Amino acid sequence: MKQEVYARYLAAHADTRTQLRVLSVAPGLTDEERGHQAFTAYALCYAPRYELAVLAPQTVLTLAKDFDRCARDLRDLIIDGTSITSQGRECMRKYLDALALVHTAMRADLGADPAR
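The structure corresponding to this sequence follows.
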């Protein structure tokens, strides 16, 4: 059960990250369209985050909270029209670092090999 919750959480963030990357380079979008699509992309993360809050230990939740904050920062850059591949690289690096930490904590909680 917990493994499935962790997988849904990470998959939702992967889908969101992909959509945000596409939006960051999408030509011809108005600010309103870009903002709506970025908020919609991030909305995929809400339900898995609530599932996580019920089952995960505090060590995972703390890192997940930091990771979610990085995801929102990334979303907000896209809303502002910032390209992830140029001006937003630092934000993307922080996001990926936070992802690695939460992923490692989840694997440790599940008793899985942390080397993956």
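The CA atoms of residues 1 and 100 lie 21 Å apart.
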